[in-house]
C-alpha cells in the first residue's frame, strides 16, 4: 500500500513542475484530500457499505427464507406475485427490501440513539457531578445555614 508521505511527495513534485498555479491547485487539493475528517468519512462510507451488504445478505438468506416457511410456495418470497388481468406485480422482492431497510434502520437507531446517547449521558453525569466540598467549604456552608436559620427565627 502506498503511504501518505509518498503520495504527498509526488503531489509536491508535480506542483513544482507546473509553476505557481499548479502548485496552488495541488496544494489546495492536498489540503482537502488528506484532512483527517475526509479520510474518516471515507472509511465510514466503506464500512457502512459493507455493513449494508451484510444485513442485505442476512435478510435474503436467513430472515426471508424463515418467513417463507410459514407462507406457502415452493421458492418462498421470491415468487410472491399479484396478478391482475394479464399484469403481474412481483411484491415478494419488495417485501424483502422493506425488511432489509427496517433492519438497517433498527440497527442504526440502536447504535446512534441508544448506545451513543448512553455514552454522552454518562460523560455529562461525570462532568456535572460536583466535586466534594473541602473542610473549609463545609464549615462555611454550616455557618451560612445557621445564619439563615437565626434570621428566619428572629423575623
Write the layout of secondary structure elements.
Layout: H1 4-17, H2 19-33, H3 36-70, E1 82-84, E2 87-89, H4 92-128, H5 135-154
Antiparallel strand pairs: 1-2
Describe this structure in words.
The chain has 155 residues and is mostly helical. It is built from five helices and two strands; from the N terminus they run H-H-H-E-E-H-H. It has helices at 4-17, 19-33, 36-70, 92-128, 135-154, and strands at 82-84, 87-89. Strands 1-2 form a two-stranded antiparallel sheet. The longest helix is centred in the C-terminal third of the chain and has 37 residues, at 92-128.
The number of helical elements comes to: 5
**Strand content bin:** under 5%
Query: How many extended strands?
Result: 2
Helical coverage, percent range: over 70%
- Give helix and strand order, one letter per element, not per position: HHHEEHH
Which structural class do the helices and strands define? mainly alpha
Straight-line distance between termini = 82 Å
Low-confidence stretches: none
What do the pLDDT scores average to? 77
Shape summary: flat
Radius of gyration: 32 Å
Give the biggest beta sheet. 2 strands, antiparallel
Q: Order of strands in the sheet with the most strands?
A: 1-2
Briefly characterize the structure.
The protein is mostly helical and 155 residues long. It is built from five helices and two strands, in the order H-H-H-E-E-H-H.
List keywords for this structure.
two-stranded antiparallel ribbon; 5 helices; flat; mainly alpha
